[in-house]
Amino acid sequence: MTEEAYSPGLAGVIAGETAIACVDQGKLLYRGYPIADLAENATFEESAYLLLHGELPNQLQLKGFKDTLDRYRPLRGELIDALRKIPAPVPMMDVLRSMVSYAGHFDPTNGTDSDDLRERATWLTAQIAGIIAARFRLLNGKEPLDAKPGLSHAGQILYQAHGTAPDDLSAKLVDLTLILYAEHDFNASTFAARVICSTMSDLTSAIVGGIGALKGPLHGGANEAAMEMLQQFKSADEARLWIREALAGKGKIMGFGHRVYKNGDHRATILERELRKLAAQKGQGEWMDIYDAIKDPMVNEKKIYPNVDYPCGLTYYLLDLPLDLYTPLFVASRVTGWSAHFIEQAANNRIYRPLSIYTGPAERAVPPIGSR
Predict the structure, then answer these.
(1) Could you tell me if 209 and 233 lie in one domain?
(2) Which of 18, 89, 285, 371 is the most buried (most CB within 10 A)?
(3) Are both 187 and 275 inside the same structural domain?
(4) Residues 87 and 228 in one domain
(5) Pair 120, 78 in one domain
(6) Catalytic residue numbers, as ranges
(7) Which domain holds residue 289?
(8) Torsions phi, psi of 329, nearest 5?
(9) Same-domain check for residues 173 and 243
(10) Could you give the 3-state DSSP secondary structure of residue 196?
(11) Do the domain assignments include residue 323?
(12) φ and ψ of 368, to 5 deg
């Protein structure tokens, strides 16, 4: 391999083909459908079915998919017992990584063909939502709740976490974030899942690998980091002063920039519009002032645009969700995209084995231990 072929971070390298998502400057498509159209006219369940099955469901197919999710929602007693034993300070993403791996020991599905994998993906989608909610309850000194059939996937997460049926706005906004987070081409966590699949490993292992990759603040953890950044300001003036100093010092501003989108993240635009409605309804306009105090100089002066994590962090905050849930909610959505990529990779597999450029010492002999 020549040095000219080296691309740090695999930037610009085409690592495979996919029919699942199209990500470029002008559009984001799930199986050909624009993300804005799905956000406006579909639910997360419809989007998840689309990713896993290749087409949007009709009414009968959607009912069957929801029924399957509901059937797989109950957590085994062994999982609840394990959750109780995890120390309270352990971050939710670490808990989720461990518990998804543990749940895999009780996988109720069988087989490895595409239909079997879709069934397993649906089981994992239901279980992940339940694990998040159960852990949240236990941390707050409450017992995990059984699922309430008939709620949306987003509504189910909120109900099992808080114990009351969510209001329409909260359920709608969480549902929207799940749609926006469900899939995004060969991002770091998806690529990790595909690499694991390429070794002919199993779907649960690939999802655990995806969770590990998503945990990092340069990937899924950015929504938590963005909100932590905003929380340090008491006013828009404080935020304006801070961003000037941060830009002068060439500091990294969390929630901005994207490896693919250079002219703005389509998902951020969609979510920000709803975020402004939420802030107005809750009388929290001062948060939007702080939000804009950071955003405006980034966009207008630096031409660096928000990615979806920037508005998502504040959206979850205004919905009274704790920071430690933000990236796990990302997982609750992206499990569908990871699974779709696993199924696609398995159907036309070749193990990933890139080359590297050696930069260590030249060849040398091993000296006797007494002379080292």
Answers:
(1) no
(2) 18
(3) no
(4) no
(5) yes
(6) 219, 258, 309
(7) 222-318
(8) -65, -35
(9) no
(10) helix
(11) no
(12) -55, 145
pTM to 2 decimal places: 0.93
| Residue 33, strand partner residues | 30
Range list of H helices, 282-325: 285-300, 309-318
Mark whether 283 and 306 lie in a shared domain.
Answer: yes
Residue 362, token pair as written in the block:
């030249």
Q: List, as own/partner pairs, every contact residues 159-168 make where C-beta atoms lie below 8 angstroms and the sequence separation is at least 24, other chains included.
A: 160/129, 160/130, 160/133, 160/134, 161/132, 161/133, 161/136, 161/137, 161/325, 163/137
Two structure tokens written together for 159? 């109900």
pLDDT tens for the chain, 372 residues long, are: 445 678 888 888 889 999 999 988 678 999 999 999 999 999 999 999 999 999 999 999 999 999 999 999 999 999 999 999 999 999 999 999 999 999 999 999 999 999 999 999 999 999 999 999 999 999 999 999 999 988 999 999 999 999 999 999 999 999 999 999 999 999 999 999 999 999 999 999 999 999 999 998 888 888 899 999 999 999 999 999 999 999 998 888 988 977 666 677 889 999 999 999 999 999 999 999 999 999 999 999 999 999 998 999 999 999 999 999 999 999 999 999 999 999 999 999 999 999 999 999 999 999 999 999
Look at residue 326 and tell me if it is in a domain.
no
State CA 72 to chain mean position distance.
21
Q: Tell me, yes or no, whether 113 and 209 share the same domain.
A: yes
Domain count, the chain: 2
Query: Do 188 and 84 sit in the same domain of this protein?
Result: yes
CB atoms within 10 A of CB 269: 15
Question: Could you tell me if residue 4 is inside a domain?
Answer: no
